[in-house]
Design brief:
72% of the residues lie in helices and 0% in strands. By secondary structure, the chain is mostly helical. It comes from Gossypium trilobum.
């Protein structure tokens, strides 16, 4: 401990041995007192910096904690319409991630990973899609996008990709149509999409796939025959349980990260900055995984409600 705070231990031992060998006699002397005071000041600075570092690390996690707790509270206390909007936003976000991962607005659709895009989308919504959509090939989608890009106008209210199946009629009623329109406006104003020649085509593809997923979900829920109260109970249970599960795992990962970033200081990196960067990346990844698992769980539940009952209420 003395060496940690630059205390000259050899000098102190020699000086004390010259003064007295009797441990019961108090040691007095200005030189000793000054050394001990310097030691105390250095120790207090050291432990103050440790406490300050812990507070700064906790502030990073506090921002994430507030976001999750506010979201959780909104799900539990919000009305039925708010719960439905959460589900729709999750579904559109999952579709957006699939599109962003396989389509580049800066490139022609010929160079997009359309085969992978179709495969990922069908894996998410496969049980809800009819046979006509499941038979769509990469070439069919490419020709449709090409024709869409060359068209001069688009009817957003009844939009579907040319020569491809129309979304199910799930947006019946003014409220659901308004919700669909707001979702389209959110897509158009999304800053995460790259600016490019094919950005409008990318946005319309996002809307088309989002409409298919959401409308198919609304249809299968309606066909289940359950009352609205039970449906919202299931949706809230899935939303909260999935969020809680991933949040617990995230806290464990952040705790491990806080220990791991200290090693990076040997590479002349600021541990706090490294913690902020990786913590943000972990948090975004957690939210993405939460949305995807929530959507998959809801689609699986309503595809076979009786088989899934024990899964969500055990």
């Amino acid at each position: 401990m003395f060496q940690k705070f630059n205390f000259d231990t050899e000098w102190a031992v020699k000086l004390i041995s010259k003064i007295t060998n009797d441990e019961d006699i108090p040691i007095e002397g200005d030189a000793i007192v000054k050394q001990l005071l310097a030691l105390q000041i250095n120790a207090e600075k050291y432990f103050f910096n440790i406490r300050k570092s812990l507070v700064e690390f906790d502030e990073v996690l506090e921002v994430q904690r507030k976001h999750v707790y506010d979201l959780r509270q909104l799900i539990l206390t919000g009305d039925d319409e708010s719960c439905s909007q959460h589900i729709f936003q999750y579904m559109q976000a999952v579709v957006d991630e699939i599109v962003f991962g396989n389509a580049d607005p800066l490139k022609h659709p010929r160079y997009w990973s359309l085969s992978k895009l179709l495969k990922e989308f069908i894996n998410i919504a496969g049980k809800l899609l009819d046979d006509s959509f499941a038979m769509i090939s990469e070439e069919d989608l490419f020709q449709s996008l090409k024709q869409l890009h060359e068209s001069n106008s688009v009817d957003v209210d009844n939009f579907h990709l040319p020569n491809l199946p129309k979304p199910p009629d799930g947006f019946r009623g003014i409220r659901r149509k308004n919700s669909s329109l707001k979702r389209w406006l959110a897509i158009c104003s999304d800053d995460s999409t790259k600016n490019g020649r094919y950005r409008p085509t990318t946005n319309l593809l996002r809307k088309y796939l989002g409409d298919i997923l959401i409308a198919s979900y609304l249809n299968i829920v309606q066909e289940s025959g359950y009352d609205d109260a039970y449906i919202k109970e299931i949706e809230r249970a899935v939303l909260v349980k999935t969020l809680d599960c991933f949040w617990r795992d995230h806290l464990v990962n952040m705790n491990r990260l806080s220990s791991a970033v200290n090693v990076r200081s040997f590479g002349h990196r600021n541990p706090l900055e490294e913690y902020k960067i990786d913590g943000c990346r972990f948090f975004i990844s957690m939210l993405s995984a939460t949305r995807r698992l929530t959507v998959e769980s809801l689609l699986h539940y309503w595809s076979s409600p009786m088989e899934s009952r024990e899964l969500f209420f055990s």
